[in-house]
Automatic annotation (TrEMBL):
PANTHER family cross-referenced by the UniProt entry: L-LYSINE 2,3-AMINOMUTASE AQ_1632-RELATED, LYSINE 2,3-AMINOMUTASE-RELATED
Domain of life, per lineage: Bacteria
Keywords, alphabetical: 4Fe-4S, Iron, Iron-sulfur, Metal-binding, Pyridoxal phosphate, S-adenosyl-L-methionine
InterPro entries linked to this entry: Aldolase_TIM, Lys_aminomutase/Glu_NH3_mut, rSAM, rSAM_sf
Listed name of the protein: L-lysine 2,3-aminomutase
Organism in which the protein naturally occurs: Thermopolyspora flexuosa
An annotated Gene Ontology molecular function: metal ion binding
Iron-sulfur as UniProt keyword: yes
Cofactor requirements of the protein: pyridoxal 5'-phosphate
Matching Gene3D superfamilies: Aldolase class I
Amino acid sequence: MTLKEGIRGYRAYTAKHLDELLVRAGFDAEQRLRVRAVATVLPFRTNAYVVDELIDWSAAPDDPIYRLVFPQEDMLPEADVSRIADLLRKEAPAAEVRAAAHEVRMRLNPHPAGQLELNVPRVGDEPIHGLQHKYPETVLFFPKQGQTCHAYCTYCFRWAQFVGEPDLKMASDDVARLVAYLKEHPQVTSVLLTGGDPMIMGEPVLRRYIEPLLELEQIESIRIGTKSLAYWPARFLTDPDADDTLRLFEKVVESGKTLAFMAHFSHPREMEPEKLRAAVRRVLGTGAVIRTQAPLIRSINDDPGVWARMWRLQQQMGMIPYYMFVERDTGPQDYFAVPLGRAWEIFRDAYAQVSGLCRTVRGPSMSATPGKVCVDGVTEVAGQRVFVLHFIQARNPELVGRPFFAQYDPDAVWLTDLRPAFADRFPFETAPATSNGTSNGTASNGAFPALSGARLSA
């Protein structure tokens, strides 16, 4: 059973409700049309809890939670918005609108870090398209029934999962092949269920994915990537299967494995309702741990005071601050991205405002093609202003924890915007070709075989 509108008291709002919802923000007809044009390209979904209990409509459209879930007309290039708005205005055939939207999507890097091209693990000769194995000890699994959310974030880097284009989806319901893959790769100790949002699934379906993992001695932790606590806390309070879900969590913990809720909170407002606090208490009461993470998003949380308050609230509730991410190079990145230098300043200034118990958090971190790159700071070395960076995780484990430098660029927002300092290449890059066309060798910190082929798990 998966969550559907009308079940469990949940009411979804989708693009067909967008026009009437935008009236609350005081938009005129033309403004509403242009927002609807954006919603033909990027997904829109929210629910009555977010609309009625989290958004301050008196402050819309500047309210941070409004901006978190509602499309903005300047999220896409003006020419694209005008073109699709004209199609909607003249009531063009649906196929023509879909074609125009598809054209725009393909320019938005729908699958960053080579997710479809590179991350295709196999069992025998058969690929598992809903599985990613980017780092030796961890696999990500995308349950087929979990490929939606209680509400979509406007910044979501997995927006391509939700736009109704099958070729852009990553998902599988083959639990047996997941288990077979894990048995073939005993170095894997952690499985992350992600999506979408796995907590959109009812308990019987969730159980079908989790219980087989409990039989594998090699698995030390099961992680669930979710924003359900923020967007639908009733999932753990009053939904008909809330108690059964919590008993499933207890079973995981009793098996000796860590159950980690990787909870997404983008703004302190999401943690203010008593429903949220009650849901957190119930999840923690099962023995699960809750680690928190979110991207740094311009116009929503690009303020150190917001992050410091968020981390303090999380720590007070028993959650563990975990990651501040950099907005990924996909979708409306240009709209939401914060330059890396400013991102580090926000992290530093927020970090300075909290106690040591909150300083479990790491960041700002980029989940880029070669791995998770953390910006440690901006400094001057040998008279040159540079970024100091290191890998938190890497496809090549030899790179983990080793500092490296990039030339300071005040406009850089992603790893690919940076240029190496004090070297002709970054440690994750292979040597340039010689004049006879052969390679000078691999990077100074070891070979990077994962980038040379599709079998990333070897």
